[in-house]
Write a structure and sequence with these properties.
single chain; about 280 residues; alpha/beta; 7-stranded mixed beta sheet; 6-stranded mixed beta sheet; 15 strands; globular
Length: about 280
């Protein structure tokens, strides 16, 4: 089974209306569809430009305001998934869950289905400045191309949760991200490579680029998209199938051959998934 994936280095910029945001999203999806992509990944906090709408302080609306755009956000991405016949990981969007807000990744299917995965590990800034609450469980999602996982940014830095997603059958993990400097970017990027090696899976990741001049905590972004493979003979030596130019407004595309994952799990130079010592760490999957 093969699947073509695209990842968007989404340029954040202040907008005056939801329509301006819509036009930017439509552009990227059309671009990916021209390359025949079946999955399109947007970055974490992709809807934060909407916080500039109606703001008079120069600091942006409160982050909880984003939850008011949830239905418009879902209609936009779900409509594009149906129109272009693609699966879209719509980055993440801030949602309301009772009296709590969550950082939620959305997966939109071409048949109209919508799945969500809340971010599980919350960074200090999200928790202390925006009062974001963590999700309470992790799932994998069955697509016509196989099972995939959605783990957002900081989540990928925790090997236990990636083990669980792989144990549930995911062969591809999509990791939308948002980092403001080199330290954060490379922390996430290096962990993506480690998780690909440990679990013999593909990781598709991307981040925000550009800046929001009127939204606090989103004024700087440092990002790059990449499609990452295990480091074994069927794949490129550096484990990179495709990557973008750092901090550029662009899209990357690559083909994933899922049969190669099964080959290396059975008879690769190393067989890290098969060789887990679960007799020593019995509380891991």
């Amino acid at each position: 089974m093969k699947m073509r994936v695209s990842a968007v280095q989404f340029e954040l910029k202040d907008v005056e209306s939801f329509e301006s945001f819509r036009e930017q999203v439509v552009h990227y999806v059309r671009n990916a569809s021209e390359y025949g992509a079946k999955f399109v990944l947007f970055p974490e906090f992709v809807t934060t430009p909407l916080l500039a709408i109606g703001d008079t302080t120069g600091r942006g609306q409160p982050v909880a305001k984003l939850a008011e755009y949830t239905e418009e956000y879902k209609a936009l991405f779900s409509g594009l998934a149906r129109e272009y016949g693609v699966y879209i990981i719509g980055g993440t969007h801030v949602t309301q869950a009772g009296d709590r807000i969550r950082n939620t990744a959305f997966l939109f299917a071409p048949d109209g289905r919508v799945w969500t995965q809340d971010k599980l590990h919350i960074t200090p800034t999200e928790r202390e400045e925006w009062n974001v609450s963590p999700g309470e469980g992790v799932e994998v999602f069955e697509t016509e191309y196989g099972k995939i996982g959605l783990l957002t940014c900081y989540d990928i830095e925790f090997p236990e949760i990636v083990r669980i997603v792989r144990a549930k059958g995911a062969d591809v993990i999509f990791c939308p991200s948002c980092t403001d400097d080199r330290h954060g970017f490379y922390r996430v990027r290096y962990c993506c490579h480690a998780r690909a090696v440990e679990n013999q899976v593909y990781i598709v990741t991307t981040g925000t680029v550009g800046s929001l001049r009127r939204v606090d905590f989103m004024r700087a972004n440092y990002g790059q998209a990449a499609v990452i493979a295990p480091n074994d003979i069927p794949f490129p030596p550096r484990g990179i199938l495709a990557e973008g130019e750092i901090n550029e407004d662009m899209l990357i595309t690559a083909d994933l051959d899922l049969s190669l994952l099964e080959d290396v799990r059975k008879a690769g130079s190393v067989t890290t998934w098969r060789d887990r010592r679960t007799d020593l760490y019995t509380d891991w999957p």
